[in-house]
Amino acid sequence: MQTRLLLTLFLIILISISTAHSQDVREFRIDTVSGVFEPTPVGVDQMKYIGNRYITSEDSTFMEYVTLIVQRDLDFYADFELIPLDTFYLRTYEISDLSFFGWQRLGAKYLLRLEAEFPGKNLRAYWRLYHAPTQREISSGKIEYNSGYWREIGHDIANEVVHTLTGEQGIFRTKVAYIKKIGQAKEVFVSDYDGNHERQITETGTINLSPIFAPNEEVIYFTSYLDGDPQLYRVVVETSEVSKVGSFKGIVAAPAISPDGDKIACVLSKDGNSEIYVLDLEGNIIKRLTRNGSIDSAPSWSPDGQSIAFSSSRTGVPQIYTMDADGLNVKRLTYQGSYNDSPIWSERGDRVTFVSRTRRGRFDLASIRTDGTDYRILTEVGMNENPHFAPDGKHIIFASSRLSEGDIYTMDLSGRNQRRLTRSGNCSNPSWGPIR
Amino acid sequence: MTKRLIFLLAVGALLMTVLGGCPGSPPPVLKETQFETVHFDLDKFNLRGDAKAALDHNYELLKDFPDVICKIEGHCDERGTIEYNLSLGEKRARAAMDYLIGLGIDASRISIISYGKERPVDPGHNDAAWDKNRRDEFKIISQ
Question: Which residues does residue A380 pair with via DSSP β-bridges, in sequence order?
Fold first, then answer.
């Protein structure tokens, strides 16, 4: 018996040594769309109290909540996969105090341990990230807010973990904007990236469409029927103060803010037909980009601001095109299907995601490389619309009527991990805010 | 059907005049419901035969009521994207406006607006609903 234990220990030590120094923390920079994708398994331990007084049941609930937020965030993130404890056979004492060996047995590559103290009305959270096979601590930190901000504490810890392991900025404190139908009106709403803290921003009582955050997250540009014709407006998120941006005959639609935050590409029909223009932030025309008798719509900037993807029905039905930001060098990108629209240029620049009419007239989200190759369908159920990238370029928000009269969903770039953000129905037109 | 109704109304009005009833009655008023709705094919804004017939009817009304100023609302069915349908709805409204101007209605009497797919008349998700929702509606601004 003892020899067997010794042998097992010896083997484990051997394996640990062989892997210990070959691990580069940033080894898994994964293109989630192309090639084999294997998310990295991460374990998150329940948050534990490390102080020396009795804690209230409320405090203990806060600790559970923080753990849950961190777990949900990391599980959502394209590169990771949370190890779910409930699907494994574990003895009770193992779950409450899972050892490194326990986590290794479950296949954890990384392990996050959380501890808490409650100074005054605050929750002070300590996090430690370990490389599970070697038990080596990679990074650690401390985050402290009023206990009521347990969501923010959880999101901040998850952001730290993402930053440590990928070198990129996490999206867990970002906001999203969307449209919700209230009676006959459609109003702009904002919530956290996971659907919490929903807040109504406009109360115009009219139809409002296509909300999009300015790069500072303080202002949202959108199309509104406030003065009759659909025109461009902006609203200050904090104060709900609405003001008109420019004024044109006909429609002003589909605003897209340039990556430098200085310009708005949008659709104007003042010439008698929908054409793509670039405006400054006050609504003055900088340049007209398209000249075509058909509908040109849905501009989306490339991350370097040098190109614009758009849809055009110049062949009879809308297809995706790209052009230089001055309107020259127009190239057709999609030849698949009878209807492709709402292109969004990936934050990484290599792909364009869009709405594609697929089998049996369904509308799905699809993705294609900017050289026109590797067309992929990302959704397989319901009507799906209005994709918009998260600022990390790895996640997409969209609207779908798969289970309701329209709700907002998020997923990662490959179509995995689809989550429903809203449950009220009557939601549409989402966009993802910037990382502050 | 509507033409017959108008005919009957006209006969009624004539009789009332002849019989000397209501000598101070107000001048006839055009009702929005007298306009015919114009329908379109999926993803299209060209005027079908039935669309032209509906517009011919509406032309007669606009000719008979020269003080009427109207707005044509272009609408789409729920398929396709919000932004594209906004442009498509405007194309549909413009097609009707251009047709009426071509027949001789003064351009100053007609304006257009697109509601895209935001205001369906039928909330259903089937061909029958979609057929109804791809339309131009006539609204009276003043008369």
Answer: none
Same domain, A179 and A161: no
Site from A276, A339, A362 to mutate, B interface, most B CB atoms within 10 angstroms: A339
- CA distance, residue B53 to nearest chain A CA (Å): 24
**Are residues A117 and A181 both part of a single domain?**
no
Q: Which of B43, B83, B119 sits opposite A298 (nearest CB)?
A: B83
Which residues in chain B have Cβ-Cβ distances shorter than 8 Å to A187? none
What are the start-end ranges of the H helices in A108-189? 150-166
Tell me the CA distances in angstroms from A100 to A108, A114, A143, B51, one per residue in order.
9, 14, 24, 74
Domain with B55, as residue range(s), is 33-142
Residue reference for tokens 């115009």: A204
**Residue B118: closest C-alpha in chain A:** A207
**Token duo for residue B18:** 């002849």
- Range among A13-27, A40-54, A278-292 rated most confident: A278-292
- Dihedral sign computed on CA atoms, order A250, A256, A260, A261: positive
Report pLDDT digits (tens) over A36-93: 568 899 999 999 999 888 889 999 999 999 999 999 999 999 899 998 876 555 555 5
Is A27 contained in some domain?
Answer: no
Classify residue A105: in a domain, yes or no: yes
ipTM for the predicted complex comes to 0.86
Q: Is residue B9 part of a domain?
A: no
Domain boundary among A166, A192, A220: A166
CATH of the domain at A86: 3.40.50.10070
Chain A residues with CB under 8 Å of a chain B CB are 186, 207, 209-210, 223, 228-230, 250-251, 253-254, 267, 269, 272-274, 295, 297-298, 311, 313, 317-318, 339, 341-342, 355, 357, 361, 363, 383, 385-386, 428-429
Of B80, B83, B94, the CB nearest to A267: B83
Residues 6 or more apart whose Cβ sits within 8 Å of residue B69: B108, B109, B110, B111, B140, B141, B142, B143
Domain of B97, CATH number, reads 3.30.1330.60
Same domain for A149 and A258, yes or no, is: no
Same domain, A147 and A199: no
Neighbouring C-alpha atoms within 13 Å toward the C-beta of A351: 25
Separation in Å, CA of B81 to nearest CA in chain A: 7
* Neighbouring C-alpha atoms within 13 Å toward the C-beta of B83: 38
- A101-105, A211-215, A381-385, B84-88: lowest mean pLDDT where? A101-105
Q: Which domain holds residue A422?
A: 175-432
Q: Kindly list the residues from chain A whose CB atom is less than 8 angstroms away from the CB atom of residue B85.
A: none
Query: What residues of B are in the A interface, CB distance below 8 Å?
Result: 43, 78-84, 86-88, 90-91, 94, 113-116, 118-119
In a domain, A229, yes or no: yes
Q: In angstroms, rounded to a whole number, what is the distance separating the alpha carbons of residues A431 and A176?
A: 6
User: Structurally, how many domains does chain A consist of?
Assistant: 2
Q: List the one residue out of A433, A428, A435 whose CA is nearest residue A223.
A: A428
- Selection from A399, A254, A367, A253 nearest residue B78 by Cα: A399
